[in-house]
Amino acid sequence: MESSTVIPEFVDARVAPRGALETLSQEEIELLLSSGQGGLYPLFRQCALAVLNAGSDTDDAREIFDRYRDFDIRIVRHAFGVKLEIKNAPAAAFVDGHMIRGIKELLFAVLRDVVYTANEIVNNDRFDLSRPQAITNAVFHILRNAGLLGHKLRPNLVVCWGGHSINRVEYEYTKKVGYQLGLRGLDVCTGCGPGAMKGPMKGATIGHAKQRIAAGRYIGLTEPGIIAAEPPNPIVNNLVILPDIEKRLEAFVRVGHGLVVFPGGVGTAEEIFYILGILLDPANAGQPFPVVLSGPRESAAYFERIRAFLVGTLGEQALARIRIVIDDPAEVARIMDRGVDEVREFRKKNTDSYNFNWLMRIDPEFQQPFEVTHASMRTLRLHRDLPVHELAADLRRAFSGIVSGNVKEPGIRAIERHGPFEIVGDTAITGMLDELLASFVAQGRMKLPGTAYVPCYRVVRS
């Protein structure tokens, strides 16, 4: 009779630090263990579970938290510092009873960022997060603490944005672009999740290997609200958790030297309007920052719809700050390579840092956290009489709210209690928005493949 081995779904373990934060103060430990007001345990547990759940086949944060509702993580002090005691963790994070090395590094990156942000940023009078410059300083300090800004290399970091639920053809294309970037010695930074966030990193690893580049950087920037739905992919070797989506987006712009946008859904649309809202600010008119929208031939219609929506809302001037390249990975990489050289020369001439863009002006409208509620979604200013970068800011918020309703636990629960978010504004804008969102639904860009999508929004054409 053949015997079979039952693979457990949950694992208990005690894990020693690897990569970050081997010691903690008594006060830090108490904060991490506290579930009360001001305590860090709920946030730490949520982000830790997301990292351990890498490779999950769901993008529903609530489903993940419900499945692992008995998951627990505690701090244990010992003579050489601290260990993490884990109960009922996802078994996929372990091999033969030992936690996968890369996941262990990311787990302690979570610990590092949660503790540092709470103690040094949020609860520190040094940072008045109502002021734009203080917000930028906070982003700088979080990234520096994570070791992102210590490289004395030429500027070479390309940020890649795109959807987590893209199809196979689009995913393979992102790998080809990543490969071409890697061949040119360019590193990759993404939102750290699956799909268009994983593909460029995977391709870049091969390009780097062929060029014998052993120290390639595969940087993942995330935030607590999204990490459960988009857990870090296995290639990420430097994870940073920013406090909220706005600081995460600012971090992309400050550390990146160029940007490639692949096909995606509302999250990608949010990112497009974020970067264009910044680049269309007159204060940034002379600053080089290459932006390429690209996908395979099969995605040409998607980009045509995006182009039409940009022109219809922000005007032809929006197209002057981007390039659209269809089905040509090498050309995308060449544009990035040339563009990064221009960025280097600009920063050298203006004595700005190679690793953190201090000169880019980011309007407070793009910095202040947007609390997604039914009331805040209904009062967005989607009107043509707004300055173009301000309209971009509220369109960004509209897409951000839909992301929350799609995959973030608070947003999902708010929709269950009160029904869909309502979005109102000028008929011309809301009409185009409704059609764009409908196309995302029809193309399966709102949820992972094979998952039925129920809209969390309703566009009101006033």
In short:
It contains 17 helices and 14 strands.
3D structure, described in words:
It is a single chain. The chain is of the alpha/beta class. It has three domains: 10-124, MCP/YpsA-like; 141-364, Rossmann fold (3-Layer(aba) Sandwich); 366-461, no CATH class. Helices cover 46% and strands 15% of the residues. The chain contains 17 helices and 14 strands. The chain has helices at residues 26-33, 41-52, 61-67, 101-122, 132-145, 168-183, 199-210, 224-227, 245-255, 266-279, 300-314, 329-349, 364-367, 374-378, 388-407, 409-418, 427-442, and strands spanning 10-15, 72-78, 81-90, 94-95, 98-99, 157-161, 187-190, 218-222, 238-241, 258-261, 291-295, 323-326, 421-425, 457-461. The strands form four sheets. It has a seven-stranded parallel sheet, sandwiched between helices. Strand 7 (187-190), helix 7 and strand 8 form a beta-alpha-beta unit. Helix 5 (132-145) crosses helix 9, helix 11 (300-314) runs antiparallel to helix 17 and helix 15 (388-407) packs across helix 16. It is globular and about 65 Å long. Residues 1-6 have low confidence and may be disordered.
| Low-pLDDT runs | 1-6
Shape: globular
Radius of gyration: 22 Å
Tell me the number of structural domains. Answer: 3
In CATH terms, what is the architecture of the largest domain? 3-Layer(aba) Sandwich
Strand order of the largest sheet: 9-8-7-6-10-11-12
**Arithmetic mean pLDDT:** 88
Number of helices: 17
